[in-house]
Design brief:
Blueprint: E1 2-5, E2 12-15, H1 19-24, E3 32-36, E4 42-46, H2 47-51, H3 61-70
Antiparallel strand pairs: 1-2, 3-4
C-alpha cells in the first residue's frame, strides 16, 4: 500500500498497485494522479482537487498555485486514504 500527499490540500491519498498490495491483497482504487501540465510542471493531486482545476483552459502551475491559496489543508482524521468524508 502506497500513499502520497496531494500538492494542494496536503491530504495523504492511496496509490493503488505496487508490491505492498501483493502481500496484503488490497484492491482499493487509486485516489489521485500525477498530472503533467502543458507548461511542463508536474503535481500530484487527489481527484477532488483535480476536479477544482479550471476547465475553460489547460491548467498550468499558476492555476495549481491559485487553487492551493484558496484551499485550507485537510486535517487528518485517522482515515488516511479517503479525502471525502
Amino acid at each position: 500500500m502506497a500513499s502520497e500527499a496531494c500538492d494542494v490540500c496536503e491530504r495523504s491519498v492511496r496509490i493503488a498497485g505496487g508490491i505492498g498490495d501483493l502481500w496484503n491483497f488490497a484492491f482499493e482504487s487509486t485516489q489521485g494522479l500525477t498530472l503533467e501540465l502543458t507548461d511542463g510542471s508536474e503535481f500530484f493531486l487527489c481527484f477532488e482537487c483535480m476536479e477544482r482545476l479550471p476547465d475553460d483552459h489547460e491548467p498550468t502551475a499558476e492555476d495549481v498555485a491559485d487553487l492551493r491559496e484558496r484551499t485550507d489543508p485537510v486535517e487528518e482524521d485517522g482515515n488516511h486514504f479517503w479525502h471525502w468524508g
